[in-house]
Amino acid sequence: MANLSALRSDFDRVPSSGSLRVTKAPPLSLETLDCLPSAVRRPGFDVAALRPGILHLGCGAFHRAHQAVFTQRAIEAETSGAAGAAPPAWGIVASSLRQPSTRNALRPQDGLYTVLERGPDATRAEVVGSLREVGFAPEDPAGLLARFADPAIRIVTLTVTSSAYSLDPAADGPCPDHPEIQRDHQGPAACNALGVLVGGLAAAQKAGTRPPVVMACDNLPENGRTLQQAAMDYASLTDDRLANWIGRSVQFPSSMVDRITPAVTDLDVADAAMMLGLADAAPVAAEPFRQWVIEDFEGARPRWDAAGAEFVTDVAPWEASKLRLLNGTHMAIAYLGALVGLRTVFEVVAEPLFADYALRFMLEEQKPTLPPSRHDIDAYAHQLLQRWRNPGIVHDLGRVGRNGSDKLQPRLLASLMDNLQAGRPAPCTILAVAAWICCVTGLGVPAEAVEIEDPLSENLRSLGRAAGSDAARLTASVLEMENLFGQDLPRMQGFRAELTAAVSQLQRVGPRRAIAALMASAPAAPVLEFA
Ligand code: CS2
């Protein structure tokens, strides 16, 4: 078994550099892999000999900084000791569904790319070789579906973002009227993630092969069960027998994935080139922390456990704390920070007022809503603050806060409902929801505020225009969006008035004074402690 700390010490520490650009360097590829300086960590197996075993849908930066790295380490763990032996067949075949840019950048590099691990004081570089093929789904839809029936592919993973499941947030299932689902049904080939998944599973069913295990790696509650239900609902729009077979025969383990991975910048490209001495058109940058907790399943899998992943019988406690503390707080500080014109998560938590707010939100409002577990939630919350305070990670608030209407329910509204039902006040959550309303409707948003994109933006902005500066009218009209807020929450006693007051306060005095007033008030209810 590989020793993680030993693997880590393979890196040489290299100070974070400035934005020097290396333009003349030859490209990273299998041919130049041996030219890497010793400070750069490289795949510990014969990359060219690696055969595929995993199909991945969506090939964004997160997948490449997370699952691909775990898989690289897992392959190394199984390869080590067997000099000259072929690596275990766990190479990743990835397919981008929306844009060909990653494929275009990675193909000339034989799928190789750099992960820049940006710590508070230093950046380390690792070249990843677990990604063996990258395609663009619309160019070869039949080829992609055929992969599902290839017995070599034993696992299918997905990082397509929660928005790509085309779920109806209130109904907790795919929305048949969703434009992407409509397009899939009318077009010659599916291009939506669910359409590709269901089409691929249909191919496996038809071929009579053992279907691959399908693993959701998106930030959704019960992501495995949610994806399975979404796939069944999608299949049943046209084929009930397929839907039943998906329910009976395909395993969908849930998993909790975590690694903060900001959008790639020119600085990342320049730093990768400088550290490698080779040009890499598709590096990714990420924090040193990475975590993967996977619901155990039947069948073969890479030695992800040797790479630091955990297999457990119930992912729910990890998933709940991650979604509610990390992702929920991310959203809260993104909207509050955006309203004062701050740009990054680091900038927000650098202000003690925002950091205190984040901690209070996590410990007094999110923590009491978590399922009982032995996890040390206080330590987790403090560790999150440390991670957000990493100056090497430039995590843009606009990116963290975008598509809020798809993410509000699991990250903020579900716990809000739990708290209100239990009679616990939740002023930090209500302020966060109010900040989201201000950001997306444009109410009282100063010129310097960061713009927050949302799929419902057009509708939300027109509500903002219609309400003018009338906070009560605005709040009432936003709460009428049943697909976001459902029916029960807006009826909870006192909630509407509190939310209206928070929107109005943000509009009048701005986030800093609103938070200061909130922090000056003592928590009104004792914090529940779980063993
Ligand atoms: C963030 C996540 O943009 C967002 O929604 O909260 O991408 C977050 O950085 C990751 O889940 C960290 O693992």
What does this 3D model show about the protein?
The protein has 531 residues and is an alpha/beta fold. The protein has two domains: 36-312, 3-Layer(aba) Sandwich (Rossmann fold); 316-520, N-(1-d-carboxylethyl)-l-norvaline Dehydrogenase, domain 2, CATH 1.10.1040. It contains 22 helices and 14 strands. It has helices at residues 4-9, 61-65, 67-79, 101-106, 141-148, 179-186, 193-207, 223-236, 240-249, 266-276, 316-339, 345-349, 352-366, 377-388, 397-401, 404-421, 427-441, 457-467, 471-479, 482-485, 488-491, 495-520; strands at 14-15, 52-57, 91-96, 113-118, 122-128, 131-136, 155-158, 167-168, 173-174, 213-216, 255-258, 284-286, 291-295, 310-312. The two termini are 33 Å apart. Residues 1-22 and 525-531 have low confidence and may be disordered. D-mannonic acid (CS2) binds at residues 219, 258-260, 326-327, 330, 399-400.
